[in-house]
Design brief:
Layout lengths: L4 H6 L45 H6 L2 H5 L2 H4 L5 H4 L1 E4 L3 E5 L9 E5 L11 H22 L3 E5 L16 E6 L6 H6 L8 H12 L2
Antiparallel strand pairs: 1-2, 2-3, 3-5, 4-5
Length: 207
C-alpha cells in the first residue's frame, strides 16, 4: 500500500463536483460547500471521539474546593440520593465515587474527619472493614463482577484525591473492563448513571 497512512485512515476526500449529501441533508452539494478534510487543522486518525464535558467540572475546579469543603464531611448531611450514599453505619458510611473508575466504585468513609488509617479508632477500623466486606458482596450480587481492587491512598503524595478525609476504595472489576481508553486517553467509559447504580446497590444492601 502506498501513500500517506494518515490520509488513508481519514477516508476518501470529497471531490469537486460531487453530488454526495452535505451534513446528511439528502440534497446535492455544490462546489462551494465542499471542503477537503485534509486541509483542516488536526491530525486525522482511525479513532472516534467520546466527548465527556462533565469532567471539566472536576478538572477546572482543581483541588481548592475539596480543601475548603470536604465532600466526605458534607455527604452525610445530604439525602442518600444527593450524597450518593448507599449505606449508613454507626461510625462509617458507604457512598459512590463521583468520579468512578468503574460502575459501582464505592468509597467507605468514617464520619470523623481524619486523614490516615492509623488515626481511626478500633471501632471505626472494624466498621470500615465490615462495610467493605458487605460492599463486595452486594456488588458481586448486583453486577456479577469478577474481582475487586481495594485500597487506601494515604496522603496527597500517595495519590489521595481527598487526602484530608480517610476513605477506602472498593472498585469492581470485570474480565473485559480494560481497553485503550484509560491507558492511552485517560478516559473511562461508564455504562450506568450514578443514580441508577446508587439505587441498585442501596436496594440490595439489606437483602
Amino acid at each position: 500500500m502506498t501513500g500517506d497512512p494518515d490520509a488513508a485512515a481519514a477516508g476518501p476526500s470529497p471531490q469537486a463536483g460531487s453530488t454526495a449529501p452535505a451534513g446528511g441533508s439528502g440534497s446535492p452539494t455544490t462546489d462551494a460547500e465542499l471542503v477537503d478534510a485534509m486541509t483542516l487543522p488536526g491530525v486525522p486518525d482511525e479513532f472516534q471521539r467520546l466527548w465527556t464535558p462533565h469532567r471539566m467540572a472536576y478538572i477546572s475546579a482543581g483541588r481548592e474546593p475539596m480543601e475548603k469543603n470536604c465532600p466526605f464531611c458534607a455527604a452525610p448531611d445530604k439525602s442518600d440520593e444527593d450524597g450518593l450514599i448507599v449505606a449508613r453505619g454507626k461510625t462509617a458510611y458507604v457512598l459512590l465515587n463521583l468520579f468512578p473508575y468503574n460502575s459501582g466504585h464505592l468509597l467507605v468513609c468514617p464520619y470523623r474527619h481524619i486523614a490516615t488509617y492509623d488515626q481511626a479508632t478500633d471501632e471505626e477500623v472494624a466498621e470500615i472493614g465490615a462495610l467493605t466486606q458487605r460492599g463486595m458482596r452486594v456488588l458481586r450480587a448486583v453486577s456479577n463482577c469478577d474481582g475487586f481492587n481495594l485500597g487506601m491512598n494515604q496522603g496527597a503524595i500517595a495519590g489521595a484525591g481527598v487526602d484530608a478525609h480517610l476513605h477506602q476504595h472498593i472498585v469492581p472489576r470485570w474480565a473485559s473492563d480494560a481497553n485503550f481508553f484509560p491507558i492511552i486517553a485517560k478516559t473511562k467509559a461508564l455504562p450506568q448513571l450514578l443514580g441508577d447504580v446508587r439505587r441498585a446497590v442501596a436496594e440490595a444492601w439489606d437483602d
